[in-house]
Design a protein that fits this description.
The structure holds 2 protein chains of 2 kinds. Helices cover 72% and strands 1% of the residues of chain A. Chain A is mainly alpha-helical. Chain A has 2 domains: 199 residues, MetI-like (MetI-like fold), CATH 1.10.3720; 275 residues, MetI-like fold, CATH 1.10.3720.10. In chain A, a hairpin with a 3-residue loop joins strand 1 and strand 2. In chain A, helix 4 packs antiparallel against helix 9 and helix 13 packs across helix 22. The longest helix of chain A is centred in the N-terminal third of the chain and has 34 residues. Chain A is globular and about 85 Å long. By secondary structure, chain B is an alpha+beta fold. Chain B has 2 domains: 231 residues, 3-Layer(aba) Sandwich (Rossmann fold), CATH 3.40.50; 96 residues, OB fold (Dihydrolipoamide Acetyltransferase, E2P). In chain B, strand 14 and strand 15 form a beta hairpin. The longest helix of chain B is centred in the middle third of the chain and has 18 residues. Classes of the chains: A mainly alpha, B alpha+beta. Chains A and B meet through helix 1, helix 18 and helix 19 of A and strand 6 of B.
Amino acid sequence: MLSVHFKCNQSRYLAGLLLLLPLLFLWNGVLIPVAQLLVRSVTDNNGQYIGLSNFSSYFADVGLVSALSHSVFVSVIVTLVSVSTAFTLAYGLVRSQLLGKSWLQALIQIPLFVPSIFPCLGLIYLFGGQGIISSYLTDFNLYGPVGVILGGIIFTLPHAVLMLVTTLRGVDVRLYQAASTLGAGAWRQFVTVTLANSIYGIISACFVVFTLTMTDFGIAKVLAGNYSMLATEIYKQVIGQQNFSMGATISLILVIPTCIAFAVDSWARKKQARLANNQIYQTVDKSPVRDWVFTLVCWLPCLLIIAVIGVVVWGSLIAYWPYDFSFTLANYDFDAFGYGWQPYWNSLILASLVAILGTFITFASSYLTTRVDTSIYLSGFMRLLALLPLSIPGTVLGLAYIFAFNRPDSWLNTLQGTFVILAFNSIAHLFSVAYLTFNNTLTRLDANYERVGCSLSVPQWQTVMRVIVPLSKLSILDIFFYLFVNALTTVSAVVFLYGTHTVLASVVILNMDDAGNIAAASAMGTVLLLTALCVKGTHMFLIQLLGKSTRIL
Amino acid sequence: MSFLTIEHVVKDYQQYRALHGISLSITQGEFICFLGPSGCGKTSLLNIIAGLNYPDMGKVSCVNEDITYLTPAKRNFGVVFQNYALFPNLTVSQNISYGLRGKEWTTARISDRIDELLNLIGLTHIAQRFPLELSGGQQQRVALARAIANRPQLLLLDEPLSALDAKVRVQLRHELKQLQRKLGITVIMVTHDQEEAMALADRIVVMNDGRIEQVGVPQALYFNPTSRFVAEFVGSMNILQLPQWNANKTIGVRYEQVKVQLATELALAQEYTLVARLQGYQLLGAFYRLELLLSDQTTIVYADVSCHQFNHDGLANQTLLAITIPMLAWCLF
């Protein structure tokens, strides 16, 4: 009887065993580090349990409390400005015929292809101590809340625009038609159709922007100056004062708003999905006045962002800002700054590792949980673990890795500072988005494909290779390049984890800026930007190529 | 001799029992339909026969060999799934030859077999097309060809015609039956469409709520239903409480077996005859369906009459009629 039971559940057991691999990955990559973080926050630096006294000493410390209020203040301002600008842009892109629509949509995404500190360098060139604009301003200090807010807006705007464009495209065009046949004017249509049907998308965007600003490390590091902020405070406590317990405590305080944001965001997404309508993209009639207004209003922020980024590229190519504007490639001679080109190659190695391994492991996990009959407890646990990284900021995850693995009794201790731990961390950090994308793709495929193979005596892995993978190739491509670009540009987590042989380009930009070598930092940043753009170009090209061969899909 | 035998098969899902001890025997070359409403367990039973699912209790055997826990790969049964599940990234040829693997299938033999099958389904010109470029009927034929490519001993069809529009459905029904006769293959088809089952099946297995209600040839199910469920699911039937004729049981009678005459004294004097008033009628093509109210003012009886009779008798709303329900037509439940 036991053998019969085993026989009919054979494939389930096999799938369960296979699922253990990604589970083990996430268990070690997310759960253990986060658990360590929790433990550290209630112990002192010698490992003694001290209850919540870390938290009480946190709130007793005026400096730390003001860091919290600073972070919240800055994030609120960034959220308000960024989301309202993004909504205008998204509305212009979806509901008007503004000039150069596709260009605008492409250019607005450029900040996604550079580390968050890259635009900050541009702000320094323009508004910093030696800035070409700030020399005309009196009493203007970039370093502080102003700088962080400006940097935050540039960094978060593309994320918000992408989210809101998706939301607005989902609004059923027939609602607009119905509203106008019922005599609603433009304003009433805007309020009762556009706003009413995109409200949850706007809420989502607000929380995403808030979290991004709150947890970003690079901008605060470069532009906050003496203005204390949570993300940099963690770094100071841990790297500066070796006060690990307080670092862990601040991390947890940083996780709280992220968790709330995560919860609200997933609630709002569900609500918005109910309103969304999967119709083909609608065209909007021309209207000269409206189109011109939107052309101006939407291109303005976009051009400002391009200017800030362009100035960095320019700055990397001139001799000495702002005194000698003669052209030079000297800033690209990274050997002169003691780094050489190795960090750049390191970044490429890491990005390739993360993209290849990450795509594989997220696809496999998603396949095993969506299309294979296995224990509901295992797959439920998998789903939970896969979503967890969404609520852990990069900075916090990086710190958690130190707690979990930078100790003699950890099996990963010998791998400190290697590509293995960097890739491990990056994949864990980026896991959720990749996993959810694959889930979405795989659940849309006909549930019977594997059964057809099975009934025709074809083993399941062959059906996966011949049918499921080809049908998901566009998603696989998207995720591969998503992981690649993100691994290339991320700073937050890796800043705690890199070693002497694995210094990354994005970290080098930070260090060069710290040392006052803004031109060299710009040069390294420009190299990353060009790389990311080339990679994106390759991505687009491959989509075109595959698109032709898959005209039937 | 029995080709496929199912004995006391039970299948439990988390919340409910999908199959309550099903037993059934199927002969070689038979065309069997599993007929029932959605959720009656017919697809579960099909999956157990295909090996895509295993029963919790009971036994399935094929030609005296126990196959209950055999993997689908070892059974060599062809399956056509609901919505066909054709691989959209593979051409028609690639789809059809998907299961033709192994040493005996050389490239030459495979291409011969593909040609043969395309000929069989009359679609030689679309070999290199992709499934989404085909019409629903063409897709259905390709799915069929794919399922029979490896010469299975048994063909299992899960609602193969339900995704098609009415005209194509009737045509493909005809082709399916011809194909089955030509190949002499045993077929089990799951459907919720009683008309389809009646047209195709040698025997129909009516299922309800995880149990078999009745097994029989179409005529038997139609004229001698053993339960009220079968009577109402296969065709339509008046279910009447007429204690003056039968005190203990409910009388069922098919619409077309209710005899309708104008309410003359002579007509009303016949046996098993009641007076009724015409409440309404619908023209359903070849006949009229009458809605008749009995003198108790609550019971409605439906009767189908020919157009000729309808016109000849000059029927109109409120006409008083004599309806006769001959005892021979009674089904007692």
